[in-house]
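[step 3/7] inverse_fold.run input=structure_tokens len=126
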């Protein structure tokens, strides 16, 4: 059985996950990348969307979040006991914020809630 996967055009500011990049490597190695696809990747590299999730994929915690953990007792312990997928979710939430004010707000919300052994309200089950 042959497996086919459809690839559609991406928006210039779409983010690129590790899985997306691995698929690109495979397609490139097999000579299956089109010029249009390579152009979209080049645009992503120029505007930063190619690498915006790199630290998230590696679970690198921003220094500002580490500093915020210092302000809320037990917050660091709670955060580091979360599953890999939950940590990625929270780190992505920070990384994808569009303004510095929003980044700071999200960092504070994560640390403050972690100090209460809970996720930010946005990520709690209803």
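[step 3/7] decode complete -> sequence:
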């Amino acid at each position: 059985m042959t497996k086919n996967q459809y690839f559609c055009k991406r928006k210039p500011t779409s983010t690129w996950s590790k899985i997306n990049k691995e698929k690109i490597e495979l397609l490139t190695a097999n000579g299956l990348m089109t010029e249009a696809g390579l152009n979209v990747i080049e645009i992503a590299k120029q505007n930063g969307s190619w690498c915006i999730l790199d630290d998230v994929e590696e679970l690198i915690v921003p220094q500002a979040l580490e500093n915020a953990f210092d302000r809320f007792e037990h917050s660091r312990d709670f955060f580091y006991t979360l599953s890999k997928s939950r940590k990625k979710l929270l780190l992505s939430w920070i990384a994808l914020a569009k303004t510095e004010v929003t980044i700071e707000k999200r960092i504070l919300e994560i640390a403050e809630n972690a100090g209460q052994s809970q996720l930010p309200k946005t990520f709690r089950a209803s």
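[step 4/7] annotate
The chain has two domains: 18-47, 54-120.
The chain has a mean pLDDT of 93.
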